[in-house]
Inverse folding.
């Protein structure tokens, strides 16, 4: 759920409070919800190949990430036990073959599934509106996770700020780079980080939230995930 609050931007924000922006959020309760994948997916980050047209949901609220493509499985499923009262639908996502289609690299790659916010409301949301976003994530039992240490799920926002950025100026042999004030996109978020006991040598598996970012732009270790199920 995406919401805004007319209060001062300096006031502490409680995610999920304020007024819901209608037409952006998705609860997956529509039994006709579907996703049109339009494979093969984009791998612009690897070989600069977008392989359009992009995949999209039938309700127009989600689309394939142009840079990295979409998860291999995207479908509506019955809500797992413990979900919101009365809920009958949830979204299942699963990455199985990341990276170049039909060309396994045996390296970790990333898929993206993007919420269509800016184009649906036809404008950006200003920080003075105190925007916040809330999502509910179901973590299956650990024995269903990939047997690998590293990030297993991430949730991020695309934000724009004014900052000193590196720009190219001039042409040919006179081309150079300089720092000047301009707009820059950044992506704060949280990642479910898994430490597999077979790789760490510990007695048990371990998981925690990795948060992006601190004041210097680096990730930091968040709370430990002590139980699976709904978060």
């Amino acid at each position: 759920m995406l919401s805004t609050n007319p209060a001062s931007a300096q006031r502490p924000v409680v995610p999920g409070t304020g007024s819901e922006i209608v037409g952006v959020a998705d609860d997956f309760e529509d039994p006709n919800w579907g996703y049109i994948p339009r494979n093969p997916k984009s791998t612009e980050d690897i070989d600069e190949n977008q392989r359009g047209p992009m995949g999209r949901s039938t309700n127009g609220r989600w689309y394939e990430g142009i840079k990295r493509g979409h998860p291999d499985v995207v479908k509506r499923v019955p809500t797992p036990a413990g979900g919101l009262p009365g809920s009958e639908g949830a979204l299942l996502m699963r990455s199985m073959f990341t990276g170049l289609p039909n060309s396994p690299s045996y390296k970790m790659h990333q898929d993206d599934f993007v919420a269509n916010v800016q184009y649906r409301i036809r404008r950006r949301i200003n920080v003075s509106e105190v925007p916040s976003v809330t999502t509910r994530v179901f973590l299956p039992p650990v024995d269903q996770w990939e047997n690998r240490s590293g990030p297993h799920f991430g949730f991020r926002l695309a934000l724009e700020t004014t900052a000193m950025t590196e720009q190219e100026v001039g042409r040919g042999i006179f081309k150079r780079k300089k720092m000047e004030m301009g707009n820059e996109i950044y992506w704060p978020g949280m990642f479910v980080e898994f430490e597999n006991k077979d790789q760490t040598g510990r007695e048990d598996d371990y998981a925690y939230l990795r948060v992006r970012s601190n004041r210097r732009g680096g990730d930091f270790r968040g709370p430990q995930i002590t139980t699976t199920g709904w978060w």
